Amino acid sequence: MEKLKSLRRLYHLGKEYSEDPFHLEAERLTQKEIDKRPFRYEIINLLLQKGGKAHTNYLEIGVRNPDHNFNKIDSKAKYGVDPGVEFKENPVDFKLTSDAFFDQLRKGEVLEPTIKFDVIFIDGLHLAEQVDRDIKNALDFISEDGFIVLHDCNPPTQYHASENFAYKKSPAGRFWTGTSWKAFYRARLNPSTSSCCIDTDWGVGIISKNNLFTHLEKDINPYLEFSVFEENRTESLNLISFNKLKEIISSH
Ligand SMILES: C[S@@+](CC[C@H](N)C(=O)[O-])C[C@H]1O[C@@H](n2cnc3c(N)ncnc32)[C@H](O)[C@@H]1O
User: Fold this and answer.
1) Does 104 map to a domain?
2) How far is Cα 29 from Cα 106, in angstroms, rounded to an integer?
3) How far is the CA of 145 from the centre of ligand 1 (A)?
4) Per-residue pLDDT at 139 exceeds 80
5) Which domain does 136 fall in, by range?
């Protein structure tokens, strides 16, 4: 109960919602997600270590405060892209939207257009159409054994997965995953990639060009409805534990 109260303070929500069952359930699931471990950077670091390369290239789309993730990444070379919407200092290499960055990368205006990244972490604008484009672009710039990693693929409720980031009186409060889950789901239908989602830190999606994971053989949610997603969460995402990921990585 104490945890819920402090969560409510964090949400800036008043007493008016303390009895509302939608708020109470969303708050319970928010707390459950917050308590999960490991964090995204541990997963990214594990993927970067795979293959024991001496030189690795890492790209993060959407950095915000680099102390939360970017600065914790162990990679020989690393680059950040962010137009600076949410964090005034915005200490990144490329102060651009992801679309502008990939466009300039193709033209050789930023970095070498032949560069390949070992991991590209997509964590910019969390709207499905944008994440679709980020995935499509990233596929052209990961190495053959590289990975695309995506944050916020496993929203606990439809309120977390709303399109509207600004509405803080929602049962999800200030916790927002957006609609990234839809883009990840669509990517799982691509037979030339395989994917999984680690059940931690709001769902850490991983896409590989190799056959490490699975892809969706059949579209079980053609209208991308949240209720259908919820009923088929494990299959929709190939939701697995971090330990299972470690097993898969070490056996390939
Ligand atoms: C969720 S935060 C990133 C958090 C960070 N990756 C982490 O793990 O702590 C999203 C960031 O994406 C940035 N952003 C918004 N629209 C973007 C776009 N079109 N392209 C790239 N980044 C974008 C925002 O400015 C914000 O800093």
Assistant:
1) yes
2) 42
3) 25
4) yes
5) 38-250
Q: Is 44 in the pocket of ligand 1 (CB under 6 A)?
A: no
Q: Which residue's alpha carbon is at the smallest distance from atom 18 of ligand 1?
A: 97
Question: Would you place residue 18 in the very low, low, confident or very high pLDDT band (cuts 50, 70, 90)?
Answer: confident
Q: Is 178 in the pocket of ligand 1 (CB under 6 A)?
A: no
- Whether residue 32 lies inside any domain: the answer is no
Name the region of 122 (left: φ>0; alpha: ψ -120 to 50; beta: rest).
beta
Residue 59 lies inside a defined structural domain of this protein: yes
Q: Name the token pair of 121.
A: 């972490």
Is residue 16 a part of any domain in this protein? no
Q: What digits encode the pLDDT tens for the residues 55-112?
A: 999 999 999 999 999 999 999 999 999 999 999 999 999 999 999 999 999 999 999 9
CA of 126 to the centre of ligand 1 (A): 8
**CATH at residue 187:** 3.40.50.150
The DSSP call for residue 16 is: G
Calpha distance 243→240 (Å, rounded) = 8
Number of domains the chain is built from: 1
CA distance 113 to 59: 14
Among the listed residues 70, 65, 73, 110, the one whose alpha carbon sits nearest the alpha carbon of residue 90:
65
* pLDDT confidence band for 165 (50 / 70 / 90): confident
Q: What average pLDDT score do residues 156-161 get?
A: 97
Nearest Cα residue to 171 out of 36, 25, 7, 14: 25
Asked whether 177 lines ligand 1 (CB < 6 A), one says no
Cα separation, 237 vs 186, in Å, equals 10
- Separation of CA 149 and ligand 1 centre (Å): 14
Distance CA 195, CA 142 (A): 14
- Average per-residue pLDDT in the chain? 95
